[in-house]
Amino acid sequence: xxxxxxxxxxxxxxxxxxxxxxxxxxxxxxxxxxxxxxxxxxxxxxxxxxxxxxxxxxxxxxxxxxxxxxxxxxxx
Length: 76
Hints:
Layout: H1 15-18, H2 29-33, H3 45-48, H4 52-67
């Protein structure tokens, strides 16, 4: 059994909602790398804290950036 911890869980804030960013641009690779693992996989919303609307935008932008060769498909 795991010991109980009395600290409440803090839900992460969506990066885009908190910074009032309405769209996710595929050319902004610095921001997009935030939502990738070191192995170049797309991180899920539980790890990043993005809302479902922006998570879909991030996924689409990452795939588009990979297709345009701005981001890697796989990290070596």
